[in-house]
Amino acid sequence: MEEKNIILSVKNLEVKFKVRDRVLTAIRNVSLDFEEGKVVAIVGESGSGKSVFTKTFTGMLEVNGEVSNGEIWFEGRNLMDIKNDKGWEEIRGKKIATVFQDPMTSLNPVRTIGYQISEVIMKHQGKSKAEAKAEAIELMEKVGIKDAERRYDEYPFMYSGGMRQRIVIAIALACHPKILICDEPTTALDVTIQAQIIHLIKDLAEEYGFTTIYITHDLGVVANVADYVAVMYAGQIIEYGTVEDIFYNSKHPYTWGLLSSLPQLGLKGEELFAIRGTPPSLFEEVKGDAFAPRSNYSLKIDFEKEPPIFKVSDTHWAKTWLLDPRAPKVEPPAVITSLHERMLEMTKKGGVYGER
Amino acid sequence: MRKYILKRILRSIISVFIVVSIVIAMIFTLIPRTKVLDLDTSYRKMTGDNKTAYRFTTFEKLGYLDFVRISDICAESENPSACSVNKSAEQQAMLEKYENDGYTVEYFRNGTPYAYHDYTVFELALNFWKNLVKFDSVNFVEKTYGVTDLEKKYYIGKDENNFPAIMCSGCEYKYQVYFGHGFPFVHQNMVKLYFGISFPTKSGMHTLDVINEEQGSQKAILQTFPTGVELESPLNQMTAKYKPNVDHLDQTRFTDNYADCKSYYESPSMVETSYIFGIISLVIAYAIGLPAGMGMARNKDGIWDKLGVAIINFLIALPSLALIFFVRQIGSMVFQLPDKFPLLGFGNIKSYIAPILILSLLSLPGLMTWTRRYMIDQSNSDYVKFAKAKGLSQREIFTKHILKNAVIPIVNGIPASIILCISGALITESAFAIPGMGKMLPDAINKMNNNMVITLTFIFAALSIFSVLLGDLLMTLVDPRIQLAEKKRGSE
Q1: Tens digits of per-residue pLDDT, B279-299?
Q2: Cβ A111–B400 below 8 Å, yes or no?
Q3: Rounded to the nearest 10 degrees, how much is the dihedral formed by the CA atoms of B311, B317, B321, B324?
């Protein structure tokens, strides 16, 4: 097995928020390595801590949040040693860039597109105004803006949503970052544009060679672009593996639930699956497996002791007692086992999955 | 854009027209006209026919009615001498004719008849608008005084200070457009607005002149007259009007009949007075309020922010009346500042300190609150988050991104604040006895000075509407999203 090239390594990360005098633990002891040049998708329901997790990489936590434990190693240093914004400015944008969910509001409405792109180039690369402009126009063309020279001086309101997201991506790439975090980059866009943006990011990742971290609800996107998938639940990564591992050989009941509830998989006449219940409150300490109360496969030990990480293969691990040799053998739901066929069936009519 | 502005101006004019017309109708129909004379001392002393005649001439002067004496009636008759004999057939016929025209005929106690016609609301409004704008023309002298031998022409001449001026022979005013002291430094006499006559305060003066003319005692200035005479005189030659009969004194100074001049006075006009105070305090309030609000927003929840909020709350909670008298008292007791403006007057800088401080303090809390609020609003927006993710420093985000957004609503309000300084500050001006505009409207209402009320309504309405328009135009300069045109939006 070849040596993995780890670009960012998270160790025992714990993030706490102070909310009205109570303490909420949003990230509970997460460790994860990101391989250089790969695409990692982080999936999970709202409130599972996906965004918070990635925000710690750039020191962008809200003021009431703090990293209470853990290390994030990047380029030979622990990012958690950075204490002020000044230090983070060396990382943000320059080394780790972020694309946010809503392109409609991510750009300053009263500054020209060109200004907002060249600003970053000038700041991080120390280029002159003219050089920055030339590079910005080149970037705009790269992200698929036609007639970039003219549109350089236009304002965001003159751009459509998809175009704006392209600009946001151009800005994010302006400094050739090592890592690009895409925080639900397509949620606010319509389906046809979604596919275009996903492809754009994919192509650019190949060209610039950056590592991509996707945060998304959309398993269709995951299937299409990701190399690895991390499934998050209640502030923890409960399963991690290659996209094939997760889609065809998932081990955690929560992952099964997620996959079964894909609306695209619903067949006519068949009731769509939904995970019952709600996630646990993170204000209190979670005992055992956080998913146990909602799971159809929970064992007695799930309510008592937190499951350790069980390795399934070199690339695949999950945190569930079901993988313990002593656990009873359970079969994943039928929908999951026929997932591949169902997805092919579905994407025959068109869609992202089949193109992979 | 130009089309839009024209449309806006047109709509503004119509709005002013409607507002003023309504005010005219209200004032002339709802206020009993006899009240107008209540405060007139000379009227109260009069008795008999004199009183009646005075009443009608006053009402005519104020625009309520058309009053005709028997001499005017008979002037139209074929046999004036027979007509002027009371109860003669000719007189009866003429009176009947007037009655048929809608006039009411009444008799003085001595038996002499007179006729009057009350204007209806529509006639009142119509008369107002008809007389509102007066253009000066080269034919003025010929038409008004029947003088035919005066050359009729416009020409470019030099005024007494050797500045060029557009001058006219044959017009009412000799100087049509000229440079002069006082804002806006280029003055004109070609178009004049006429709003009627002030009564009973400043009786007989045009309402516009009341608020617009300099006040105080006359100020003599050393100047050279057209005849070459050099002397100290308060006359303002730029305001020379045609005078049909020049006296000997005039002839020593002027070479032509343009000898009817206004005078220079020591103190600025009411408008100018209010403006001096308004603008200076406005500049101070903005100079302090904007940076303070921005600083507070930038260090939100910091010590300075908390202190600022405390000050704002204190200033808002303190009734303005209390603030005014408090500052005035402190000023006069501790710093020996005058507690009444006329004590030291316009010439002394000490007269200004306390009122300007008060006016600034009054507008400061609002300005600070709004600036702070706009800034904080903006700093919570997504583009700021993204700018942070781009790696910009707090300072860069503030100066390059937030500021430009937050300033938009502030810019919108600036023209209104500047222009509406003209309306003066009622309480502060009263407290210091400053001869400004603030007291004009309430005074005019109290004294039944109806024409003045209409004049002020017109001025305030027009200025408010146009300052809103100006604010919008100014906003297009800072906000690219706003385009004052009904054209299609940008591409895609």
Answers
A1: 999 999 999 999 999 999 888
A2: yes
A3: -10
Q: Which of B94, B132, B383, B394 is nearest to A84 (CA)?
A: B394
Which chain B residues have a beta carbon less than 8 Å from that of A171?
386, 390
Per the CB < 8 Å rule, is A111 touching B481? Answer: no
> Which class would CATH give A6-226?
alpha beta
State the nearest Cα–Cα gap between B385 and chain A, in angstroms. 8
Which of A109, A119, A157 minimises the CB distance to B490? A157
Looking at residue B492, its pLDDT comes to 38
Closest CA to B253 of B278, B267, B280, B234: B234
Intervals of CATH 1.10.3720.10 along chain B: 270-438
Please tell me which residue of chain A has the smallest CA distance to B381.
Answer: A105
Contact residues for B334 (Cβ-Cβ < 8 A; gap 6+) = none
Query: Distance between CA atoms of A327 and A287, rounded to whole angstroms?
Result: 19
CB pairs below 8 Å between A and B: how many? 91
> What topology is assigned to B270-438 in CATH?
MetI-like fold (1.10.3720)
- Which among A58, A82, A110 is the top mutation candidate for probing chain B, defined by the most B β-carbons within 10 Å of its own β-carbon? A110
Give the residue from A27, A44, A59, A40 showing the smallest Cα distance to A181. Answer: A40
> CA A44, CA A215: separation in Å to the nearest integer?
9
Instruction: Enter the tokens of residue B204.
Output: 């007989």
How close, in Å, is residue B479 to chain A by CA atoms? Answer: 6
- Is A110 in Cβ contact with B404 (below 8 Å)? yes
N-term to C-term CA, chain B:
21
Average pLDDT rounded to a whole number, residues B233-251:
84
**Tokens 């303090």, residue located:** B361
Cα–Cα distance, B462 to B473 (Å, whole number): 17
Work out the pLDDT band at B19, boundaries 50, 70, 90: very high
Q: Which of A59, A67, A53, A56 is nearest to A17 (CA)?
A: A67
A172-203: per-residue pLDDT in tens?
888 888 999 998 888 777 888 888 888 888 88
Whether ipTM tops 0.90, in short, is no
- Indicate the residue type of B434: I
For chain A, the distance separating the N- and C-terminal CA atoms, rounded to the nearest angstrom, is: 25
Span A2-42, pLDDT tens digits: 567 889 999 999 999 998 889 999 999 899 999 988 999 99
Tell me the sheet residues that pair with B222: B232
Q: Which pLDDT does position A1 carry in this prediction? A: 42
Start-end ranges of CATH 3.40.50.300 in chain A? 6-226
**Are residues A168 and B386, on separate chains, in Cβ contact within 8 Å?**
yes
Task: Say if the Cβ atoms of B389 and A158 lie within 8 Å.
Answer: no
Hey, CA dihedral for B23, B24, B29, B33, is it positive or negative?
A: positive
Interchain pair B383, A107: CB under 8 A: yes
Residue A337 has pLDDT above 80, yes or no: no
Q: Per-residue pLDDT averaged across B201-216, rounded?
A: 81
